[in-house]
Amino acid sequence: MDVTGEAGRPAGRTLRIADLLGPVTALGPGRRLGLWVQGCPLACPGCMSRHTWDPRGGREIPVERLADAWRRALADGYDGLTVSGGEPLEQPAALAELLAAADRERRAADRTDADLLVYTGREEDEIAASPEAWAALELADAVVTGRYRAGEPTRLVWRGSANQRLVPLTPLGQRRYAAHLRREADHTELQVRVTDTDIQVIGVPQPGELASLERELASRGVTFRENTWRP
Ligand code: SF4
Predict the structure, then answer these.
(1) Which of 15, 47, 71, 179 has its CA 20 to 30 A from that of 54?
(2) Distance 133 CA to ligand 1 centre (A)
């Protein structure tokens, strides 16, 4: 999805992001706009998104331009916005502004059925102890919380490890996510996106899936010079 936005608009607050893609179907229900925030200090062993750790990486995008992308996604019938990372709560003021803009856009488009889902590596008690984090998540309909723990695999949808919790925060979040709180994946829900230089894996892999993808690609003569899930 193009995030170039409308030329000439004055830049407001920016969010440093790693990527913005749509439609994403592997991180929440339906067709979604996926936004990966750049910068994460949590360094979970086994993280598949190590390229999002560096807080100086990625690119800074004005929130207004991200809101433009969300407006176009809504017009295209998308079901929701997923903010992942990286660690979104490392940029709490920009996250709050993004969610406020996303909420305004869905109301303006009469699309209040479109939900806002945020992934964070912060634990619930860490969020509860941080007024900034609470304020940033005020308009999120649901959150997935907790560090990724490679030693605690799970088949629960949209979670990488068994300790992570999917928590609805609003009535829309309840309606959208109640059926998925304990739902286990019966098939892979990964998306694989191929560009001229990269193979992107979107979603939360089941144990062994990345290794099996690598083996499958190697059997077809495709090997990685580097990847984001190994140091
Ligand atoms: S799994 Fe998430 S929280 Fe953990 S290091 Fe990776 S991006 Fe950060």
Answers:
(1) 71
(2) 17
